[in-house]
Amino acid sequence: MLLWVLCLAWWGINPAEAQSRKQPLDFLNERLKIPESIRFVEPEYVESGVGVPFGVDKRLSYYTGNYAEAIARFSEGLRRYSYKAEMWVYLARAYFYEKKPEDARDTIRQAAQIMSDLSVAFWDPLLESMLSEIRKRALDQQAQIDFYTRSQEDYLELFRLFRFLGDEKGMVGIVQRAESRAEKMSVLATMVAVNTRAAYLGEADRWLGLADQLRAELRAVGFIPPAPKQIPNYVRQSVASTDVDLLEEAHQLQLKVDFYGAVLADFSALFDNYLALNLPSGAQFVLEGLQREATRLRLKADTSNDFAEVSQLQEEADAFDELQRSLRERLGESGL
Question: Against a cut of 0.85, is the pTM above it?
Answer without folding.
Answer: no
